[in-house]
Amino acid sequence: MSSAQALNLILDKIASKDKDFRWMATSDLHNELQKPGFKTDAEMERRLCSAVLMQLDDASGEISGLAVKCLGALANNVGEDKVKMLLSSLCDKLISGKKDSQRETASLGLKSVIGDLSVSNLASFTFTVPSLVLLKLKQGLQAKESQEVISECLDIMAEVLLRFGRSLKDEHLFLKDILLQYLADSRSVIRKKAVSCIATLSPYVPDEQLDNILGFLLDNLNNKSTKPELRQAFVHTLGLISPGTGWRISPWLDRAVPVVVRQCKSAAESDEELRDFCLQALEAFVLRAPQAARGHLKAILPLALEYLSFDPNFADDMEEDDEDQADDEDEMSDEGYSDDDDASWKVRRASSKCLSAIINSYPDLIDEVYPELSPPLLARFREREENVKMDIFNTYTDLLRQVANTSGSFEGSTSSSPVGMLRSDSQNISKAAARQLKEKSLKARSGILGLLKEFAAILPDQIPASLSQLIPGIQQALLDNSAVNSGLKIQALLFLRTAMARSAAEPWQSYLSQLSSALFKAVGERYYKIAAEALRACEQLIRIIRPDLSQPIAQQHLGPVQPLFQCVMQRLSGQDQDQEVKECAISCMASIIACLGDVLLPEVPQALRVLLDRLRNDITRLTAVKAITTVAHSPLPVDLNLVIEPVLTELTSFMRKANRPLKQASLSAMEALVARHGARKEQAAVQAMEAVSPIISETDLVLTALALRFCTTLLRQQRTLGPHVTQRILPQALALIKSPMLQGTALEAMQAFFAALVSLGVKEASAPKLIEAIVGSAKAESHAAKQAAAQCIAALAIAEGAAQVSVTVKIMLDILQGQRGDAGSRYLALLALGEVGRTTDLSGYDGVSQAVTGALEGSSLDELRTAASSALGGLAVGSTSAFLPFILQQIQAQAGKPKEQYLLLRSLNEVIVSFETSAQQQQHISDGQQDQIMQLLLANCEADEECRNMVAECLGHLALLNPQKLVPSLRSQTQAGSANLGIVVALAARYMVSEQPHPVDHLLQGSIGEFLQSMRSPDRHLRRAAVQLLSAAAHHKPQLVVAHLPGVMPVLYEQAKIDPSMVREVDLGPFKHKIDDGLELRKAAFECMGVLLDACPNRIDFSSHLRLLESGLQDHYDVKMPCHSLLAKMSQVAPGPVLAELDRLVEPLAKTLMAPVKSSAVKQEIDRNEDMIRSCLRAVDAVSRIHNIETNAAFKGFMTNTVSKGPLQAKLKTIKEERAEAEGTGLTQ
């Protein structure tokens, strides 16, 4: 049947007198309109519109409801004139309808059309939908005697403003005036609708009209003659305006906050609505204008705390700690207290949310607000209204999360720190939590367990002391057979898993019986989420049973072992399990075998066979591979002979898969198996080695490192495999040496592989042959490849002992002296001599010193001189007494020759760095030599930039050898007045900041303030060096700079601003080019701001950070990138301030994403632009996860109109998937 015939049949049935026929016809019409590509002629469109409009008046509510659904789809499938007719007819019904039901249906129909019209249709219309609807609504709003008409018109107006508010600029003034008029109406229904409309309109009106609205509200609130019901409306409007207008309301807070506070305090005893609206308004001020509201916290915070316990109809002694009385109160609360007229709970809920806003908006004040907030919040855990109690739990959880943000900071957990104060409250928290676990309310018990989980994550050592109070309630939650308490069970399991994983095992052992019975029952639950969490908790229970694998299990703790194995085995063997349960069961069983296998020897073979089956399953193989690795690493005498050969076969087959995580896990598993059982299954091991061979390449260095480690372990376990490795793996390794990307763990694995290979004594893989092969492979490659090759040559020589070292040195000298090699070979030979010389004293070898110094002084090739510099440094590391005096002498002799001095300084730096961490080797650099080195270095501070940087690095590392002498000396140099000397001192101080504690820290703490004063210098290079020092100190040891931050931060912010005086124009003939000399300084400043945000978030002024972000996001590419990262971090650390300032940031983000690439752009420019878009989208993704982000109209429009379109939508999805993978979670949005 054609579409036209079907529509004719539908229209015939719609006209039927039979109600069922009409309902089915309307339903069929809705289905037809939903079909993609629906199209019909103009006459049919007219008939359909008339039929649907007629159905709106159908006596059957079900039919009229279906007609409303049809309207939205119909409007997108008919012509412009029909849409216009639909809107006009609906508006006429709304305004002129004689029955309430007609007006209500017309209102629903208008909302459907307005909400469902597609953007493409709206753009194609010659008329504007909002203007047409608004013209009709004006008529209805003038019908002042009809409350119903006005109410419906205001309702539709709110919908129009929500979608088209920005496009109604010409109507803003009229709308503002008429809405303010209805806001003061005597009819409550009209006032409420007007409040909603004004709140929806406010984000779009210009500042002048917004000021008029705010002025009107505050003037009326200050007017003593204003009626109480109007005061409620005005305060409510203030609170609803703030989320949409954000920072634009900031100038008004000095006037608005006192007014709202006064209204709250002066409200009549029974006027809970006004108090509720006042507290909501204060919450909105804090969330959306935190910087402006900061000055009013002394008024807002006490008010919110006062009304947190506002309950005039119920008396409760919150200070009484007597347990008997607490039990009595619990019984009273169980009976329930009900008063339908009591609205005081709204005030308490609003107070709790206001406190939550303060906590989230001012994380830097956590150490001040914690002692004020914690006691009253804990006292209100006895709240009688369940929903309010949950809000209080959420507020306290927010408080805990802010404390957690400081737990890893430099302040530690001193008694005055937030963590220290939380520690002192731990007993009170446990008592309050134990009391809540006795409640009958499932929500309350679930909420308190979620709070306890957050607490356990911060202070796990405090949980064991409270187990006697908490275990009964947790056990009861897990053993409850109620079908509606799944959320409670999951929270209980999450808490147990977190607490057991992070706290000492011994205190838990007293409760093994209670815990195990409850957990085993939960493992058998039908709901997969409960079963999965129970299995994860059982995995932690294993650690409780046996905390030390080197010790046998205590006899009294053997009871749960067999039941644990049986319940997990039942889940592991089941075929109809959820994927998450399967994976958790596999992981848990692996832990059981690895930790308890010696007491389950008869049962282990059965479990291993099931794990092998899971390994052969595509769905569970990755988890099974990780499980095999866990078992193989176990120190217990678990026999894997039953499965090792088929397991190796399966793992070998995975090497041919494209799944990278599977390959990584499989390589680790094979290495673990071979390390333990390699000598028994030679054939399987050979097959595995052959499968691994293609992986060894520069394509993926992570997999390459794992593959080389596997081969190294294989060689050590099965020495007979030398010929196979030489044939299959060695060619791949020699090819990889040519790669400039070989570095880090892959290079270390390569060196270990070569050392293991030569130790076998295989003729084809002797050290001389390998060295010759490496030289032949790498001599024509890049400098980076030669550096890696040199380290491999040194590893080969040292692995074979002194005799091979002599042979290797002779080979390298032949290359250098005999002229048998080209420049590439000589470069490699010099590097190899240096690498060998680091661990072996080569001063006694004839010709070594002459060859290196000859290349350093006599070579015409810069690259050879650079290699000779590295070689000389390496030789001096291995023989300081022989080579260091020569280096110092040459530095002095080459004064005035910057290139020569730079090379010698590199050599010197190699020596200093090698000794800075070894106290025993300091004797090789005598005090006299240290003085000589310092004088030589300071004398070169005025050299060119390259030389200065090396001088600074040498001074910094030298200061780590003798901080008592060097730090005061460098500090005195800050007064010299030379910019270059200041740069050297600042950079040297940066090199003094190390990750590990060091004696220099104490001296640096007293000096770093003076070093940071260089940030005020007129020299931009010196300012940049000081900024880099601040970044390094904040990253590694924030305690060094935290005391200086109040004075340093304003100066740092100045460095992040664009300085027009630092932008110069260069005439290049046909065109002029602008050069921004301040670019690198601004980039360093924003990077420093990001480091400070990570290191000490509670010492940061977030508003200042965000104001600078606005300009940084519009800056050069090099500045935008760290700004995107900074915005992403702030979205996690300080979501409240970000949400408040987000309106300012949306436009620069949109410009970055929509910026076109020049048609003449080269590949490098295209790639840079793509990197910037991805960086920007990462920031957008982070912002989009802020709680209540949907309340920001600007960001919501940005996501809809810019990000969720075209290629950006796919790129954002990829970003989200990458983030979810990195976090180890599934993509949920």
From TrEMBL:
This is TATA-binding protein interacting (TIP20) domain-containing protein. It comes from the Eukaryota. GO terms for biological process: SCF complex assembly. Pfam families: TIP120, TPR_CAND1. Belongs to the CAND family. Residues 316-342 are annotated as: Disordered. Keywords: Repeat, Ubl conjugation pathway.
